Amino acid sequence: MSKFAGMNNTQISAVQCAKIFYLFALGSAALILPSAVIAIAKQDAWISMLLAGPFNYLVLALYLSLADRFPNMSLAQYAEKVLGVWAGKAVTFTFVLFFLLLSSLVLRNISDFLGLSVLPQTPDWFIDITFMVVIIYGVFLGIETIARTGEILFAWALFVFIIITFSLLNQFEFQNFEPLLYEGIVRPIKGVYPILGFPIGEFVFLTVILPLVKKEDRPKLRHELNKAVILLIVTGVLLTVFLIGILGVDEAARSPFAVYDMAKNINIEEVLVRVEILVAMVWIATVFMKLVLCMYVLSVLTAQMLNLTTYRPLVVPYSFLLVPLSMIAYRNAAHLKMFAMGVWTVYSVFYGMVLPLLLLVIAAARGKKDGGAGRFPEPPPLDKSVKSGGSEAPGSESLPDKEPSST
Amino acid sequence: MFGSHITGRKKTGGKADKRSVRAEEHEQQQLEGYSKKPLSVSLKDNQVFIQQEMGESQDIIFRSIRLTDTGQTNVLIVYVQGMVDDERMNKFIIEPLHRERYPADRELEPNELTDKLKSHILSIGIVSDIKDWKQFFQKLLLGYSIIMIEGTAKAIAANVVGGERRGIEEPKTEMAIRGPREGFTESVRVNSAMIRRKIRSPKLWMEQWTIGEISQTPVCIMYVHGLADENVLKDLRERLDAVKIDGILESGYIEELITDQKWSPFPTIMNVERPDAVAGNLLEGRIAILVDGTPFVLIVPSILNMFFQAAEDYYQRFDIATFLRMIRFVSFLIALLMPSVYVAIVSYHQEMIPTQLLLKLAAQREGVPFPAYLEAFIMEFVFEILREAVVRMPSAAGNTISIVGGLVIGQSVVEAGIVSPAVVIVVSFTAIASFVSPAYSLGIAARLLRFILLLAASTLGFYGIALVVLLLLLHLTNIRSFGMPYTKPFAPLKIKDLKDTLVRAPLWLMRERPQKLAVQNPVREQIEPEPRKEPGQ
Predict the structure, then answer these.
(1) Which of these three, B118, B140, B158, is where a domain ends?
(2) Taking CB atoms and an 8 Å limit, are A270 and B354 in contact across chains?
């Protein structure tokens, strides 16, 4: 079923959706974001992480209420319903550009990280291309496979986080948190600013994933996503607390990949030393999930904008676009810092919050509500199992593959 | 060779292929021609026809018996020498017929005689009528003995199937310390009976196919009705119907032709040699495919987790079984990853090694002319060659191989300073770990993937390993066996089903059958749901 399925008849469960959301949110942010927040909020950065928590809920509530209005449609589809076909397509196109840039930045993150810390002599383009091979394969296999892979990576990521937390406990220094709120509450509030764009604004990818959740799982969805958000806040706060507690404010703020540097401190009886490569593996996994989802969303949005029956032909061309784009996205770390601090939050918040909010307001004002499936071209006659609406297909996991077996 | 040609692929290939297609079409026509062609009333004509069709093969025995004095009512018995049980044949077919003698005035009509033969002359359990040549040849070549009567176009097939076959022995590939000692044999009937002896329920159903255009191999599926998923059954029937091949010589043919995943090193159909393992799987709602001529029975749908389960796990205490399961999982990971992790650490991430160990390793590697990855490649390759040699060679040469392999290659390669001892340790440990997997088919996948991982580790270090592992994860989560996700119950996560995966929960806790397998009837029948509490506690 999954092999020839079009883009809208694959299904994931609510728990899977929550897990890939969590992995996406950790994505590239877990390694880079804490230093940025610590640079602004110093030892109170963990309060910023806490303060950013409610925003997660706000954006999720926004996407969920859009999903309530248009349960079987992705952003590209309801944008056309709400704004009219051409205006909707224009808005979708800007979202496509947003995800294109986001994907290339994520790819740049991973190649920066690997190039700087793990494989200093390997050229960037080689890392980019090898990584993209895995991404292309993942996007080709579709959201069901991505979600299942996410489940396994989720368990692996939690496992490694717990191991690292425990093995660092002995080096924790509470003095690093003093003085608490030295300059009042303003500094932690300022620290929230980068978090809003990265990763919260990027959560807009959910608008494409939510319609793929099984119909019978929809009532659970809000609950599961809320759990994921709580876990996310806990992870974020814990990461920041450990960074400050172990590296201290100065080092944590200066280090480009703070969590990685923190893992370098692990030393258990001189036997288990320098296991930062474990962190790198987790990070490769979460960045992989983020990039795979970005690429998927990018391809699906484009396919829906162009009324294609499947997104798959777009994946390889987009990768050819992504690799060069990631190499020219910014020049160096200083440029990145300027871009991430100054531009990205505004850009990301506009797409992650303002535009969806506008869509919701206009939809509410015009009383648009549509339970139907998005407008899709008829599927090719070759595959009879493709139906026009995602949730109308029965639980796909129980369906055996319909391929002819021997000939 | 048999199996070299599959009818579905007519478009491919050059002249030779076309010729064999034509030959097969001819064969097909002939077989279909048989079905239309009825037997002749004349015994002489029939005998001539059989001899002509079978090229006057000497192992086809014609035995004619005269029942009347006038010699008008003759009976002809046809069988294949060696495929029938001679003793039963003499005692229950030829002897009774010899005793029947009809004087000239009391001759029977041929049809009457047929009925009489069936009703009280032949002392054989299974007798059936034969009306055309297709049935005739099918029964004859299964080892039936066929009785033809002069003057009627009907014949009788009597089941005296026998001849020398291997007896029931201990399974060679799945040893168990505790558990039944019997393994399947090459006969599909003996095998199905062994399963029936384990599950004495009328709900154990069987369906039969004859697959192989030329080999005409009996293939059975067995399942517990009401437990097995009807969708899977329907799918399996369709796939078996679609199999078109010259011959089925082993269940591996069926496995390859009906599998979901044509391009995967991982087995999506499990093969089992133990009746108790098959019975256990049937009780969980899976389906067994029995193929005549091989002791390996296929189980569908098969998911990754099943390849780590041994039948023995359920015969031991659950805590011990759990411990053994964990060992198996860890060993699989070691067999898959250890050489590549070693290469990655030694060539890219030396900082991970504790200082003392690093010094030791560096001292060992001093003077070794090859880089670590080349060493590992060479030793892995040597090991694979050794392993293959040991499987194929006559057992008399076994000692020689172990001396040459163990002493010469292991020791002298190190002493000569060509390979560092650490690599030898890693490779031999990997080898031992790869034998832990109870399923050979999964172990062989790990062997193959080890080399890919080694290549990735030697070019990109841990990053390469991470990439290949991600690819593998994507692949594993993508593939299905008869519609069932291969990585169930890990992904999609089914918490209830985790009781029989890495851990083996106590039997009294496993009150539910695996989800999505036994859809119709999810709860296991339990006599004693929980351990009985002593009164007064």
Answers:
(1) B158
(2) yes
